[in-house]
Amino acid sequence: MRTRSRQSPLSVENRRRSPVANPKIGVLVMSYGTPESMDGIEEYYTHIRRGHAPTPEQLAELTARYDAVVGGVFPLRENTNRQAEGLQAALDAAAPGRYAVYQGLKHARPYIEDGVDAMAADGVKRAVGIVLAPHFSTMSVGSYMKRAQEKAEEAGIAFQEIESYHLHPKLIEALVKRVKDAYAELEQKTGSGQQLKVLFSAHSLPVRIREIGDPYEQQLLDTSSVVAEGAGVTDWQFTWQSAGRTREPWLGPDILDTMKEVAEAGYKGVLSAPIGFVSEHLEVLYDIDIEAQAAAKELGIELVRIDMLGTDPLYMETLADSVEQATRTAFI
C-alpha cells in the first residue's frame, strides 16, 4: 500500500471559525460517481466534460447505455453507498468509535469538496482519503487526491492520502477466488479440454501517461500476475476497455479487439476479469456484459465475467487495513 502524508496547517482564522474539534478520524471514501436517476444524466455528463454540455447525440447515446443497464431504475449509486457503509462497519469492528466515513464523488453529488466540507462541519481535524480503485494513476486517483487535499488545506484538516492498495493480500485473496469460480463456470460451459483465455482489464487512459512514468499500467500488470498465479492460471493476458473518445491515443488493445484475436487463435472461451473496477459500474454492466458479450456471440465463443468485489468482507477489510495503516503513519 502506498500512502502520502500532507499536513494541513490550521490558521488562526480557521481555528476561530471551526466547530469544537472532533477526536474521530475522518475517512473520505472517493469514487467516480454516477447519476442518481435517469434525469441526472445530462448534468453528470456536463460535469465530466468540464462544464461543456454534451451534444444531443452524445446525450442520447449515454442515456441509451444507462437505460440498457438499469431499465429506468437506478441502483448504481447504491453500490457505492453500500461500500461506504461496509467500510464504516469494518472500521468499527477494528477500532470502535475511532473513525467516521464520508463520501466524496468526482462527478456527482456529494462531490469530493462536499465530503470534506461535511467533515469540517463535524469538527474533524484529521482525515484519511481512499479511492474505490486499487491502482494509482495521476489521472485518476491522483486527481481525486488533489481536489481533496486542496479542500482539506482550506478547511484546516490534516489529510493523509492512500495512493494504492493493489497488492494487499486480502484484495488478492478475494480476486483469486473470483477468478477460480468464474473459470470453473467457463469450463463447464465450454466442455473439458477447450482452450480458454483469461483477460484481465481496466479502464484505459491516454497513452501519454507512459511518458511521465505513471505507475498505473505496471500496477495493473502486477495485480494480474499475482492473481493469475494464485488461481493457477497460466494462459492469460492484460487488455484495456472503455477508452475515451478523444483525439489523443488511448492505451490498447481494446478488449473487443483482443477477443477477436483470441477467437481467431482457436480459443473457445474467455474469462473477463475487470480488476480495475471494484463495483458494477456502467463500464462493467454495459461494456462487458452487453457489448463484449454480444461480440463473443458473434465470434462463437463463450464469455464469463468474474463477480465484482462490491462489499465482499475481504475487500472491506482491505480498505479498513489500508486506512488503519495510513492512520498509524500520519497521526500516531
TrEMBL record:
Asked if the Swiss-Prot or TrEMBL record annotates the protein with the keyword Lyase, the reply is yes
Named in its record, the pathway it takes part in is: Porphyrin-containing compound metabolism; protoheme biosynthesis
| A GO CC term attached to the entry | cytoplasm
UniProt-listed InterPro entries = Ferrochelatase (IPR001015), Ferrochelatase_AS (IPR019772), Ferrochelatase_C (IPR033644), Ferrochelatase_N (IPR033659)
CDD domains (alphabetical): Ferrochelatase_C, Ferrochelatase_N
List, in alphabetical order, the GO biological process terms annotated in this UniProt record. Answer: heme biosynthetic process
* Top-level taxon of the source organism: Bacteria
Location comes to: Cytoplasm
Q: Which reaction does it catalyse?
A: Fe-coproporphyrin III + 2 H(+) = coproporphyrin III + Fe(2+)
Q: What class of enzyme is it?
A: lyase
List of residues binding Fe-coproporphyrin III: Y32, R49, R65, Y66, Y144
What Pfam family is a match for this entry?
A: Ferrochelatase
Q: Which UniProt keywords are listed?
A: Cytoplasm, Heme biosynthesis, Iron, Lyase, Metal-binding, Porphyrin biosynthesis
User: Per UniProt, what is one GO molecular function of this protein?
Assistant: ferrochelatase activity
Principal location listed in the UniProt entry: cytoplasm
- UniProt EC number: 4.99.1.9
Listed binding positions for Fe(2+) are: H203, E283
Its biological purpose is as follows: Involved in coproporphyrin-dependent heme b biosynthesis. Catalyzes the insertion of ferrous iron into coproporphyrin III to form Fe-coproporphyrin III.
Which protein family is named in the record?
Answer: Belongs to the ferrochelatase family.
| Full protein name | Coproporphyrin III ferrochelatase
Protein species of origin: Paenibacillus rhizovicinus
Which gene codes for it? cpfC
